[in-house]
Design brief:
Layout (H helix, E strand, L loop, with lengths): L8 H11 L1 H8 L5 H16 L4 E7 L7 H6 L5 E8 L2 H10 L7 E5 L12 E6 L8 H14 E12 L2 E7 L10 E6 L1 H10 L3 E9 L5 E8 L4
Parallel strand pairs: 1-2, 1-4, 2-3, 4-5
Antiparallel strand pairs: 5-9, 6-7, 8-9
């Protein structure tokens, strides 16, 4: 039987990311991070085929805005507005600093991604990089139903999930930081893809890849039907 999930999970996670934002960004937020940019490039290629001049993107767990948010904002075809969400105050402060030149096309929202609320069919794209894995598995499933509602018909979803099937995992000193308590969970490769399909999205890409100095993830690019 799996260990019970910490009751104050979200509060502890916010505190950890606030305390270790500099450490985290030094290790993971690299402008040339190849895997994430590979999939973002594929996403943009699909968006360009839709002939939309502008696109609204929701990024779940945007962190400090590097590399994903900046990559999207650098797009000229289509021109993109990003709504970036993160649970960490410190991470969003970094994002504001890193994305100053795009201030008119960025909206930053602090809080638990599962608590977000938007009208139906608000976004052309929803993304989640190394972030949805911080939710308990049942909440990942709940989130996917919300993602489906938030997407416009024909909209895209791009995210990665743990390739391992495990109910929960905690670490007290992640990245060697004394305040680096962290939580992850995962349905595994097959169940994660099925979770995406079960809400009504059509999976276009599903690939398991090993991240450098990190775990193995399944990357999913999916699309909401046009009607």
């Amino acid at each position: 039987m799996a260990d019970p999930i910490t009751s104050n999970l979200k509060t502890r996670m916010k505190s950890s990311y606030d305390a270790m934002s500099s450490t985290y960004n030094t290790k993971f937020m690299k402008p040339d991070e190849t895997i994430r940019l590979d999939y973002l490039g594929r996403l943009l290629a699909h968006l360009q085929k839709t002939e939309n001049e502008k696109a609204a993107v929701l990024e779940l767990g945007c962190g400090g805005g590097i590399p994903a948010t900046k990559y999207l904002l650098d797009s000229e075809n289509p021109l993109i507005h990003v709504t970036g969400n993160d649970i960490s105050t410190a991470q969003l402060q970094l994002a504001r600093s890193n994305l100053t030149q795009y201030a008119d096309r960025v909206t930053l929202l602090e809080g638990d991604m599962l608590a977000l609320s938007f009208p139906t069919a608000t976004f052309d794209v929803v993304t989640g990089f190394y972030s949805i894995i911080h939710l308990p598995r049942e909440e990942q499933t709940q989130l996917m139903h919300k993602v489906f509602e938030w997407l416009k018909p024909g909209g895209f979803f791009l995210a990665n999930f743990s390739a391992r099937d495990f109910p929960n995992m905690e670490e007290d000193n992640w990245l060697g930081h004394e305040e680096g308590w962290m939580f992850w969970s995962g349905w595994g490769e097959e169940k994660s893809v099925k979770m995406v399909e079960d809400v009504g999205l059509k999976v276009l890409v599903k690939e398991a890849r090993q991240a450098v100095d990190d775990a193995r993830f399944v990357w999913v690019l999916a699309r909401k039907p046009e009607s």
